């Protein structure tokens, strides 16, 4: 119960309540099981994750579905299902032409007939061995997994849903915000002490949610580009001291891409920490970085081990460096390694 208490404190207060950052399982333990599946979430919880992350898109009938993107050709067996062959199409999502199968063209009942598969099989053949075993989850089902695990383990397991492409969905007649607020109200997740962190790369949805719910909100920030709903704004502008102060008016967290905290030089080596963590804390924001992965392809040069890009490097050491830099939480595909690194700092 002590860990449950300190986890709640970190979620609620403006400064870290414990020395170790929260570990957020990025789509579950998605380095070892197909992402966004029950198996990935359960393994993440077993490995000590404090929070599990569902990315949310919508079905044709308006149900919140747990997939990283609304295009599902890369994460399910839909391409192998002849009954859905005619639904393959090309759409423009946030300015990017994308070909495949899209959740908004399927009812929940149809989506439930599909089975999940590993998105990066060349990097994660061990995870790919679990292809075809798990159904697509709804947001309700992910919350149920967290709640059941909280009872079983005696520690609070929070959820960190990310609203994906809300402006796009609104443009096709499937607005997210009203339905999402209704879901949170039904699930009892609207309060300031709710075990949840709501994320989005867009700004407007978070600003509006801040007027409707008290639950913690996180503004996601990439190292390039800007929010899809604010074409005149860049993420670089949003993480200046002035931008962070404005962000704190609607968000509790800033969630930067990890190289914005520990930059890399032209050779791909980590350099000195940026001022972002200190400036965010000064603005009253907590900091959660994304995304720690164990494969050499995703690590800075000095953390790589062996020759192959799919081989695992020193991710735990990299996590320790972020903990030392003062971040309050870390997204990781490998929660056990992230926990190990955070404990070593």
UniProtKB/TrEMBL annotation:
Q: Which CDD domains match?
A: GDPD_ScGlpQ1_like
Keywords, comma-separated and alphabetical: Glycerol metabolism, Hydrolase, Signal
| First and last residue of the signal peptide | 1-19
Record's keyword annotation contains Methyltransferase: no
Any idea where the GP-PDE domain is?
Answer: 21-342
Q: What EC designation does it have?
A: 3.1.4.46
Q: Which reaction does it catalyse?
A: a sn-glycero-3-phosphodiester + H2O = an alcohol + sn-glycerol 3-phosphate + H(+)
* Record protein name field: glycerophosphodiester phosphodiesterase
Native organism taxonomy: Bacteria, Pseudomonadati, Pseudomonadota, Alphaproteobacteria, Caulobacterales
């Amino acid at each position: 119960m002590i860990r449950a208490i300190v986890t709640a404190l970190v979620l609620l207060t403006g400064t870290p309540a414990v020395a170790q950052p929260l570990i957020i399982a990025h789509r579950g333990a998605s380095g070892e099981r197909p992402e966004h599946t029950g198996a990935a979430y359960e393994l993440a919880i077993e490995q000590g994750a404090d929070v599990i992350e569902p990315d949310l898109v919508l079905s044709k009938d308006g149900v919140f579905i747990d997939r990283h993107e609304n295009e599902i050709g890369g994460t399910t067996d839909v391409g192998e299902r002849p009954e859905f062959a005619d639904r393959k199409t090309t759409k423009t999502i946030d300015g990017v032409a994308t070909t495949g199968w899209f959740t908004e063209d399927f009812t929940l009942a149809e989506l439930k007939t599909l089975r999940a598969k590993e998105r990066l099989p060349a990097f994660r053949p061990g995870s790919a061995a679990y292809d075809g075993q798990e159904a697509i989850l709804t947001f309700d089902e992910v919350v149920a997994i967290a709640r059941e695990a909280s009872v079983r383990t005696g520690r609070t397991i929070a959820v960190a849903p990310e609203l994906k492409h809300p402006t796009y969905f609104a443009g096709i007649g499937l607005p997210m915000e009203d339905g999402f607020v209704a879901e949170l109200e039904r699930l009892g997740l609207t309060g300031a002490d709710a075990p949840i962190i709501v994320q989005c790369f867009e700004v407007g949805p978070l600003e509006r949610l801040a007027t409707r719910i008290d639950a913690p909100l996180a503004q996601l920030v990439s190292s390039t580009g800007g929010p899809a709903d604010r074409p005149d704004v860049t993420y670089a502008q949003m993480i200046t001291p002035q931008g962070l102060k404005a962000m704190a008016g609607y968000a509790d967290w800033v969630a930067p891409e990890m190289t914005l905290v520990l930059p890399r030089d032209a050779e791909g080596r980590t350099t000195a920490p940026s001022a972002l963590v200190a400036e965010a804390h000064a603005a009253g924001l907590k900091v959660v970085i994304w995304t720690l992965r164990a494969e050499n392809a995703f690590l800075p040069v000095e953390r790589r081990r062996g020759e192959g890009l799919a081989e695992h490097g020193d991710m735990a050491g990299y996590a320790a460096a972020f903990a030392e830099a003062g971040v309050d939480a870390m997204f990781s595909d490998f929660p056990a390694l992230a926990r190990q690194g955070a404990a070593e700092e």
